[in-house]
Design a protein that fits this description.
By secondary structure, the protein is an all-alpha fold. The chain has one domain: Growth Hormone, Chain: A. It is about 85% helix and about 0% strand. The chain is elongated.
């Protein structure tokens, strides 16, 4: 090995991995922040009362409870890196579900989109936290 080459698990590899994990945490935080600001818009668009509007928060956060153990089982099969990739894919699918929900104005589809988005976030967070420990 030359002096210019870096060994696997070197400082450069760890810094690059930490950069991408920081970016993923930014994405997770941003998506969670958007959830709260969605409530007043859905109240107007779908003509909801306060109780119905709070189902937005419920649909989002119940995914963390429901999908935590399945996420752990998935990660046991596919690994942390593939789990993060799958989590991003599921998040993208949930985000894309907002398009037909907005076109139809059907509130149940908005809730399904939020649950799907949060399910991807649950998978991604379940993968990210132990992966940080693994890379040091």
């Amino acid at each position: 090995m030359n002096d210019n080459e870096q060994a696997p698990g070197s400082t450069k590899d760890v810094v690059v991995a930490m950069f991408f994990i920081s970016l993923l945490f930014f994405i997770l935080g941003f998506a969670t922040w958007l959830n709260g600001s969605l409530i007043p818009f859905l109240k107007i668009a779908c003509d909801l009362n306060n109780f119905q509007a709070l189902w937005v928060t419920f649909a989002f956060y119940i995914a963390y409870t429901v999908m935590a153990l399945p996420s752990a089982a998935i990660l046991g099969r596919i690994g942390y890196k593939n789990g993060m990739t799958l989590g991003l894919f599921i998040m993208a699918l949930g985000a894309l579900l907002f398009i037909p929900a907005a076109r139809s104005g059907f509130y149940g589809l908005f809730l399904a989109a939020l649950f799907t988005l949060a399910s991807g976030m649950t998978l991604m967070q379940t993968a990210i936290n132990p992966y940080i420990v693994c890379i040091g």
